[in-house]
């Protein structure tokens, strides 16, 4: 099955700094990657969809200039949270698009902004 | 109205009992339905998906879909303490195309010995 490696698993950063989250597909080529965010006791919310070699598609209400997505290769998609604020503290999860929709997720990144 | 609704719980069941988890959705044209298990601090793990009305069984798990009532459920037979987790329901709505999944907030299940 598809193996997705997401790093880091946990990160603490200061307000105003930027944090990069990486999601690598290890045994397949991911042309599309979904990025979700989950606040405590809430549902996963789709933030954006990244496509290899083209611009990401952002969901309504998600600031594209704050959450920078890069999908420069078929095995790597990154999400950078810029100028982080405490309200950006959340659990961020990537999920590659495969023939089996919704089957695979990265391990998740717990971001804490202090 | 939320697109996918679940009772937050906790649902507490004794070990060996059947746990019944419910989910309703608002998009009547939704095509596919998913159940995930999520342990605290971890990513969701897909348990099973269902497309057609009726029941679908996989080991101790049975998914039930009723499109007319816009209702999908998950039964867990012979519940074990290791089943204690949050169970997420997700729906692929017709308005979202192939790619989009809408998640419920999850039901926390506690299986006590």
Distance between the ends of chain A:
37 Å
Query: Would you identify the regions of chain B where 5 or more consecutive residues have pLDDT less than 50?
Result: none
Order of helices and strands of chain A: EEEEEEEEEE
Q: How many strand elements of chain B? A: 11
Global shape of chain A:
globular
Percentage of residues in helical conformation of chain A: under 10%
Instruction: Output mean pLDDT of chain A.
Output: 92
Helix content of chain B: under 10%
Note the beta-strand portion of chain A.
Answer: over 45%
Structural class of chain B: mainly beta
Q: What is the arithmetic mean of pLDDT of chain B? A: 93
* Biggest beta sheet summary of chain B: 6 strands, mixed
Overview of the molecule:
The complex is a heterodimer of chains A (114) and B (113). With 114 residues, chain A is mostly beta strands. Chain A contains no helices and 10 strands. Chain A is globular and about 40 Å long. In chain B, strands 2, 4, 5, 9, 10 and 11 form a 6-stranded mixed β-sheet that branches. In chain B, strands 1-3-8-7-6 form a 5-stranded antiparallel β-sheet, with no helix packed on it. In chain B, a hairpin with a 2-residue loop joins strand 6 and strand 7. With 113 residues, chain B is mainly β. Chains A and B meet through strand 5 of A and strand 5 and strand 9 of B.
Please tag this protein with its features.
heterodimer; A: 114 residues; mainly beta; B: mainly beta; 6-stranded mixed β-sheet; 5-stranded antiparallel β-sheet
Write the layout of secondary structure elements.
The complex is a heterodimer of chains A (114) and B (113).
Chain A (H helix, E strand, L loop, with lengths): L3 E4 L2 E4 L5 E7 L6 E7 L6 E7 L5 E2 L8 E7 L2 E6 L8 E7 L12 E5 L1
Chain B lengths: L3 E2 L5 E4 L4 E7 L6 E7 L6 E6 L3 E5 L2 E6 L4 E6 L8 E8 L9 E2 L3 E6 L1
Parallel strand pairs in B: 2-11
Antiparallel strand pairs in B: 1-3, 3-8, 4-5, 4-9, 6-7, 7-8, 9-10, 9-11
């Amino acid at each position: 099955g598809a193996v997705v490696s997401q790093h880091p698993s946990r990160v603490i950063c200061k307000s105003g700094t930027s944090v990069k989250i990486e999601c690598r597909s290890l045994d397949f080529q991911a042309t599309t990657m979904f990025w979700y965010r989950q606040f405590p006791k809430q549902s996963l919310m789709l933030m954006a969809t990244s496509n290899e070699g083209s611009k990401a598609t952002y969901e309504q209400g998600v600031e594209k200039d704050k959450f920078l997505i890069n999908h420069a290769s078929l095995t790597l998609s990154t999400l950078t949270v810029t100028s982080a604020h405490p309200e950006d503290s959340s659990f961020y999860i990537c999920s590659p698009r495969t023939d089996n929709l919704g089957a695979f997720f990265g391990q998740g990144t717990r971001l804490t902004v202090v | 109205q939320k697109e996918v609704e679940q009772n937050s719980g906790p649902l507490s069941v004794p070990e060996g009992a059947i746990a019944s988890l419910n989910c309703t959705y608002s998009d009547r044209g939704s095509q596919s339905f998913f159940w995930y298990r999520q342990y605290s601090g971890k990513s969701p793990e897909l348990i099973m998906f269902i497309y057609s009305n009726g029941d679908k069984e996989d080991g101790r798990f049975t998914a039930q879909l009723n499109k007319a009532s816009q209702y999908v459920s998950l039964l867990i037979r012979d519940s074990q303490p290791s089943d204690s987790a949050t169970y997420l329901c997700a729906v692929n709505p017709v308005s979202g195309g192939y790619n989009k999944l809408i998640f419920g907030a999850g039901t926390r299940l506690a299986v006590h010995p």
